[in-house]
Amino acid sequence: MGDIREQVKEYYSKMSIDNGGEMATHTCSCGTDSLPQYIKDVLAEIPEEITSRFYGCGSPLPPALEGCTVLDLGCGTGRDVYLASKLVGPEGKVIGVDMNPDQLAFAKSHRAEMAAKFYDNVELIESYIEDLSAIPDGSVDVVISNCVINLSPMKEQVFKEIWRVLKIGGELYFADIFADRRIPKEINENPLLLGECLGGAMYIEDFRRMMARVGWVDFRYMSSSAASIDNPEVEALVGNIQFSSRTVRAFKLPDTLEDICEQYGQTAIYRGGIEGCENYFDLDDHHRFFKDLRLDVCGNSCSYVQDTRFGKYFEIFGDRSIHFGPYEGCGNAPSVDGGGCCGGGCC
Ligand SMILES: C[S@@+](CC[C@H](N)C(=O)[O-])C[C@H]1O[C@@H](n2cnc3c(N)ncnc32)[C@H](O)[C@@H]1O
Known about the structure:
Layout: H1 2-17, H2 37-43, H3 48-51, E1 69-73, H4 79-88, E2 93-98, H5 101-109, H6 111-117, E3 122-126, E4 140-146, H7 155-165, E5 166-179, H8 185-188, H9 191-195, E6 202-203, H10 204-214, E7 220-226, H11 232-238, E8 243-251, E9 266-270, E10 280-284, E11 287-290, E12 294-297, H12 299-306, E13 314-317
Parallel strand pairs: 1-2, 1-4, 2-3, 4-5, 5-6
Antiparallel strand pairs: 5-8, 7-8, 9-12, 9-13, 10-11
The structure holds S-adenosylmethionine.
């Protein structure tokens, strides 16, 4: 296990020390989500030296970050840390964690410049993401991570740590590479495939089971797209395994989360007010709340927009006092594309 992390460290040291760090595939840096304009505007202010060393596979920056404490797991050279620094504003805070001293040194070398440009609200910590003991229980509003958790040999421990550091109502929002089946040992242990974020990709159904064990009996996908490899040699090594780049959203709501969508007759209206969500708010890849339009919601979806930092932007009708059974059409069978909420009337 320790060896795997050492291997990964070495792989990413090469990336940050040598030039802009060309990787062997496009799996990392394949950014699936198109950035909203307000984030593009911030990105334009980040030095090219940093953005050219970005190895994420998505854009895990949820809206409404102002004033939040954000924790970036595996922050690398710091692109998302500095984006978040601007987005959380002067009252917020961003903590970047990475095990690789070279990547972190690079991020740190831009800290003063970025503090002068944005805000002096960034802390960079050299640590394994499996042990976040430097961060107190229940102290973080939003945990983000971009193409990192696949690299960990102890993924469940990472999710336990995330659950621990999040506040109640806090959010995990991360992008990563997933697989449509369990990865065979020889692929998992291949240093190139591991470093390229393929060897350690989580099989989506095992991921769902792991999340449930930790407390996330429901979570949502924000986006999903086929991961591009663009390297015939690597493609030959991975064979028929299909990889996808996905962005996941999960809220720490231990008292309200249920493993399937339950019907309580609740409805919710997005009243606007979130930057970047002027006309609508996407809760996930299948719930779009148009401003001022009332939407039927299951108990979990209702809790996501009521009991989190999004609550102040929503008007909720109804509570859980009357239960009408499972949300019609929604079951708890494993789904290719979802957590607990898998295609019912609300979904
Ligand atoms: C693919 S890069 C992504 C970096 C950054 N998130 C970005 O989007 O540019 C993976 C990063 O995760 C870090 N990493 C991998 N496994 C880790 C672990 N177990 N603990 C801490 N950091 C880890 C690596 O050092 C590397 O900087």
